[in-house]
């Protein structure tokens, strides 16, 4: 066996990107998603004055530009969201989850809700509107709504809390638009009383969580579908530690914990279904 035969062949640019993105975000990029890489990274290459995506990947391989790495990672995360997206989970929150928690937390007078992978913030602001509209008795409670995401750019937009007309037309009732938003040129801005209810923080779900409070409700919708089974299990284990014993975990309509672990059990509600901590045998 010659020395040359021991040298591994260089990996392709797609293989490098798949490994780079997977290690940083947990997102699994299969070869059939090569078109998605081209579509999302071509604008980044142009903005950074690279002649091509391949030239940009060459610079990424050097590992000398944290700014470029951040731009690539931000571009490859999926940031699809809207106000009251899919409706049913928010109906369940209003009609079943919150009434139960308000009763259970009457002595503590405190509630904490986490919108994980919150993107540009519409989910977190939807939750705050539900609280203000339907639970006025909570105005004197200690309410915490936390929105987190791995993407720096979308978090900046969430904090700014300004949305264009197309974003406003996606799921937001006209009555709530008038009540909780004010027109600023071609955008709509979240009113201060609503904006002050939500705090945003950068957080990578595949890494050890920073210090966080215990939550009564955790929303993690349409996110687990992007991860490997091993990564899903690790995330669910960390979520389990952050959820109060009688809390609620809300996943996407096509997502489940079944076959992943025994930490959660699926519970059917009238409007939707949620996951709660399972009672495991000792």
From TrEMBL:
Question: Which Pfam families does this one have?
Answer: CheR, CheR_N
Enumerate the spans annotated as CheR-type methyltransferase domain.
Answer: 2-280
Q: What is its EC number?
A: 2.1.1.80
**Reactions performed catalytically:** L-glutamyl-[protein] + S-adenosyl-L-methionine = [protein]-L-glutamate 5-O-methyl ester + S-adenosyl-L-homocysteine
- Which GO BP terms apply? methylation
Query: Which domain of life does the protein's organism represent?
Result: Bacteria
- Top enzyme class of this protein? transferase
Molecular function (GO) terms for this protein are:
protein-glutamate O-methyltransferase activity
CDD domains annotated for this entry?
Answer: AdoMet_MTases
SUPFAM superfamilies from the entry? Chemotaxis receptor methyltransferase CheR, N-terminal domain, S-adenosyl-L-methionine-dependent methyltransferases
Q: Which UniProt keywords apply?
A: Methyltransferase, S-adenosyl-L-methionine, Transferase
Report what the protein is called: protein-glutamate O-methyltransferase
């Amino acid at each position: 066996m010659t020395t040359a035969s021991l040298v591994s062949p260089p990996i392709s640019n797609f293989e490098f990107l798949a490994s780079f993105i997977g290690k940083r975000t947990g997102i699994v990029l299969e070869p059939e998603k090569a078109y998605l890489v081209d579509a999302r990274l071509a604008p980044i290459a142009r903005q950074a004055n690279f002649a091509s995506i391949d030239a940009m990947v060459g610079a990424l391989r050097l590992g000398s530009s944290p700014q470029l790495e951040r731009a690539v990672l931000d571009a490859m995360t999926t940031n699809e969201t809207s106000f009251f997206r899919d409706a049913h989970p928010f109906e369940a929150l209003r009609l079943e989850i919150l009434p139960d928690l308000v009763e259970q937390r009457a002595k503590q007078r405190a509630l904490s809700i986490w919108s994980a992978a919150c993107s540009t913030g519409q989910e977190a602001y939807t939750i705050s509107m539900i609280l203000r509209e339907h639970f006025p008795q909570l105005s004197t409670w200690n309410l915490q709504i936390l929105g987190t995401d791995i993407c720096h750019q979308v978090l900046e937009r969430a904090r700014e809390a300004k949305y264009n007309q197309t974003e406003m037309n996606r799921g937001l009732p006209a009555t709530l638009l008038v009540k909780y938003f004010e027109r600023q040129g071609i955008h709509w801005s979240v009113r201060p009383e609503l904006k002050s209810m939500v705090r945003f923080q950068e957080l990578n779900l595949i890494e050890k969580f920073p210090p966080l409070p215990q939550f009564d409700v955790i929303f993690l919708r349409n996110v687990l579908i992007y991860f490997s089974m091993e990564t899903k299990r690790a995330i669910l284990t960390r979520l389990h530690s952050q959820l109060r014993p009688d809390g609620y975990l809300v996943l996407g309509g096509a997502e489940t914990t079944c076959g992943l672990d025994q930490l959660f059990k699926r519970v059917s509600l009238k409007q939707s279904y949620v996951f709660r901590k399972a009672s495991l045998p000792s």
